Amino acid sequence: MRFMMQSSQIERKFNMLPSNCQGIFQILDLENYQADDENNSFESEELQAFLNISKELVSGGATGSESYPGELLPPMNANVILPDSILDLLIDYYNCAYVEYNFSRSRLDFSSSSENYIAVTGKVTQYGRLRIGAEYFGSVLSKRYTKSSYILARFIDERNNDIDTYPGQVQFYFEHTTHLPSIGPVKHYLAFVNWYRPAVSADARFLFANEDSDDYTNDPEL
After folding, report:
1. By the 8 A CB rule, do 154 and 173 touch?
2. Alpha carbon 109 to chain centroid distance?
3. Do 125 and 80 touch, CB atoms closer than 8 A?
4. What is the per-residue pLDDT for 182?
5. Where are the domains positioned within the chain?
6. CA angle 59, 63, 66 (to 5 degrees)
7. Can you state the angle between helices 2-15 and 41-52, rounded to 10 degrees?
8. Distance CA 49, CA 133 (A)
9. Strand 117-119 vs strand 102-104: parallel, antiparallel, or unpaired?
10. What is the phi-psi region of residue 47: left when phi exceeds 0, alpha when psi lies from -120 to 50, beta otherwise?
11. What is the per-residue DSSP string for 105-163?
12. pLDDT tens digits for 160-198?
């Protein structure tokens, strides 16, 4: 009975979304969502929380920040300075997430008459693992949990509303604080991911064998 009520609440919240936002939630595959036992109760609650923040969605995407039911876990490295190449990616992220501001490494990159400029420092706190709800995700930084560092991320293609899946490996998670005008310091919890390059051809194949065998029978599809 509990799960029937939860499913009904989730469906009701989804139907209350603006029609131009509902397509984004194809990723969740709500029609096939089922709660079979008590172990799924936490996932159901997480899904409701996810729909609750949907009001932040606007045309072109969501900006700002929302709390999430998780936490960053050790190993932890404080006061780490990001390499310039990664700092540039972080600045690109901020410029996409907050289009009303201009982000750069230094205020010297802007003219004296420029307003709404924000200098981004490269100092972060690195973490090796992430917990979201009942799931744990590792990273390359945490050698013990490297196996759980591989991810599949799903994105909506804005051109035709298709859902694309991209494989990658999380290098590390990090906490970064930036100062927004009229708001003050805002913490962001992010992940640095190395994405796999697309295969040149879908016909390409690689054969693998176990260490104790010369039987090359595995033929993974790219």
Report:
1. no
2. 29
3. yes
4. 78
5. 2-62, 70-195
6. 125
7. 20
8. 11
9. parallel
10. alpha
11. S-GGGS-TT--SEEE---EEEEEEEEEETTEEE--TTSGGGGGGGEEEEEEE-TTT--E
12. 777 888 899 999 999 999 988 878 899 999 999 999 988
Amino acid code (one letter) for 199: A
- Residue keyed to tokens 């590792």: 138
Tokens found for residue 176: 């970064």
Spell out the long-range contacts of 132-139 with Cβ–Cβ below 8 A and sequence spacing 24 or more.
132/46, 132/68, 132/69, 132/70, 133/42, 133/43, 133/46, 133/69, 133/70, 134/42, 134/43, 136/73, 137/170, 138/170, 139/170, 139/171, 139/172, 139/173, 139/191
Token match 């694309």: residue?
164
Residues 6+ apart with CB under 8 A from 208: 216, 218, 220
- Dist CA 94 CA 105 (whole Å): 12
pTM of the model: 0.65
138/159 Cα distance (integer angstroms): 32
Q: What is the mean pLDDT of each run of 10 residues along the chain (222 residues)?
A: 52 60 57 50 56 49 57 94 95 91 73 70 95 89 92 81 87 94 88 88 66 60 54
